[in-house]
Structures are given as C-alpha cells and as structure tokens.
Amino acid sequence: MNFLKRIFNKSNNQQNDIETQKGKLEEDLLEDVLWNFANKKYADLGTFSQALIAYNQKIKPDHDLDIKRIFISSRKITVQYMFWGEDEDGDEDQIEENFTITTDNKKGFALNDFLFQVHNQVCENMVDEDATFFQGLMPHDDDSGVPFFFLNQGS
C-alpha cells in the first residue's frame, strides 16, 4: 500500500476528498471547515473546540461538523502558511513559514486537535493580515516522508 493511501482515512461522506494518482494526493482537504485565524491563542483544546463549533454553526447552521473525525492517520504533519512581515533587510515581504505538529492520538489527527495546534501556531502573525480565513489544506509531496500541506488562506 503506498504511503499517501495509508496515511489518509476516508469517511463515508468524504469519499471523494482524497484521490491519488501515482502516489500523489491531488485534492485539497478540509474545505468544509470554517475558521478565522485572526483570534487570540486558545489555552486548551476544549475551549477551542467549542469556539470552532459555534463559528461553523453561526455561518452554516445546517452544516454538521464532526470535529473529532480523524482526517489523517499520520501522527506528524508539516504545514506551511504565508503572512506579511519584515525580511532580514527590514523590508516588508511575504514570508512563508513551515512548522511541524504532532498528536498523541494513535489513530492520527482529529480535526479539532489539528486546527487547534495550527491556530495557536499562526494566529499572532495573522492579526494584521487580510487572508486570515481557513480554506482547507493543499497537499504537497516534499519527499520527507512526513505529510506536508499548504494552508489555504482567504479573505
């Protein structure tokens, strides 16, 4: 079984989220999840989970978001996002930053755990940004063996 097919789980209502061809993931993930990163850090997963559910219900009242669904069986993920900041010369520039997160869940990353960790990692750099809304993940094969995703950000 190839690496990407092994690490990604398919739920019944998301059968078409994951399509592989030649071992490469082609479809974006978690596009059904709504979130804004331009908020404060959350102290714990429970508080974040309540905010995530409330945010999604406010915008899409009929959407039933399963925040505990395991969307990837890997316990380690690398994420890249973009924000505006100063480069080493002190000039304003678009910065691309990578970070790696892990989970203790042996089954893999649950949606709420993943987004909680990502939020707390990126939120301070998103305060003055235009593109602060989560619009899913775009997979990228960086040949590291660790799933790598670009954070799709919108305004």
UniProtKB/TrEMBL annotation:
<protein>
    <submittedName>
        <fullName>Uncharacterized protein</fullName>
    </submittedName>
</protein>
